[in-house]
């Protein structure tokens, strides 16, 4: 079998998944019961098509692959914002409830101690709810606008063509072992190098170290999808899950810090948000430790 014999059906299948998500969206409507499931299906298919276009770019018309990948990234990011706001609001509300319910705060308490934290937690929760609800409404409007745009319809037309035909390059005529194996090993090499370059000592505050961890998360996803296409090698779900938790906690900490900069908020509210920020940064550190443990248990074949 050639590389094209393997890659083309893979792209056809995920393009068909994308179109099924599109049909579900059309049936359910923008605010119907199936809207969330449709958006999730569209994003999942977009991620897998985009990953294949990135890893196996040389086997395809590169200009076409780059354009399609950029559009899929745009769509996935736009559709994901609304649900990210919802998930973040739930996460922060649960953390505030836990912290104000007796867990020792991560910051030195003010003179009134737990009473100030309880009072501040209620006000902080209301502030976060207001900010994230507004952000979710804006994201919902942006998603609806995107799905009704000419840009999206052009993307859907391209994916519809991909469901039956993939623009392969001459490189796709090589054997599957070579045409697919070489790019997959390169994707793994990039992942291994990025993991090896992760900072080992925590920096003050820690936020400036988030970017390389987020990059490893993306590279790990590309590697996992390439392994799925090849049907061989370990699938690092545990390590990927740790990096997902790292991303969620880092973004929640950033939201808490941003809310704490709201003008004219009460000191107790600012204190509760500071405790919340510290708690989420603790979760970031825990996720990094969990990733390292999961990674060490994984057998890595570099080829």
From TrEMBL:
Annotated ranges, domain CHAD: 1-300
Protein source organism: Streptomyces pyxinae
Superkingdom: Bacteria
Transmembrane annotation, as ranges: none
Protein name, per record: CHAD domain-containing protein
A Pfam family this chain is assigned to: CHAD
Family matches, as InterPro entries: CHAD_dom, CHAD_dom_sf
């Amino acid at each position: 079998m050639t590389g094209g014999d393997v890659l083309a059906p893979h792209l056809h299948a995920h393009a068909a998944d994308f179109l099924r998500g599109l049909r579900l969206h059309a049936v359910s409507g923008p605010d119907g019961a199936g809207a969330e499931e449709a958006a999730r299906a569209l994003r999942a298919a977009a991620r897998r098509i985009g990953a294949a276009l990135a890893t196996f770019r040389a086997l395809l018309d590169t200009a076409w692959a780059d354009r399609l990948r950029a559009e899929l990234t745009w769509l996935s990011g736009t559709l994901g914002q609304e649900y990210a706001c919802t998930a973040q609001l739930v996460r922060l509300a649960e953390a505030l409830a836990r912290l104000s319910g007796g867990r020792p705060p991560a910051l030195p308490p003010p003179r009134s101690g737990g009473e100030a934290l309880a009072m501040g937690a209620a006000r902080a929760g209301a502030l976060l709810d207001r900010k994230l609800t507004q952000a979710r409404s804006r994201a919902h409007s942006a998603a609806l606008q995107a799905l009704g745009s000419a840009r999206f319809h052009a993307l859907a037309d391209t994916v519809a063509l991909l469901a039956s035909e993939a623009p392969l390059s001459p490189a796709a005529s090589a054997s599957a072992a070579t045409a697919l194996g070489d790019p997959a090993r390169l994707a793994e090499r990039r992942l291994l190098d990025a993991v090896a370059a992760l900072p080992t000592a925590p920096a003050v505050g820690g936020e400036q170290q988030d970017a390389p961890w987020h990059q490893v998360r993306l590279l790990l996803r590309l590697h996992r999808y390439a392994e799925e296409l090849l049907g061989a090698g370990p699938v690092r779900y545990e390590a990927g899950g740790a990096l997902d938790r790292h991303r969620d906690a880092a973004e929640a900490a950033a939201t808490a810090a941003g809310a704490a900069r709201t003008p004219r908020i009460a000191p107790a509210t600012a204190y509760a948000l500071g405790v919340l920020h510290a708690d989420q940064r603790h979760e970031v550190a825990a996720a990094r430790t969990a990733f390292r443990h999961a990674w060490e248990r994984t057998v890595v074949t570099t080829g």
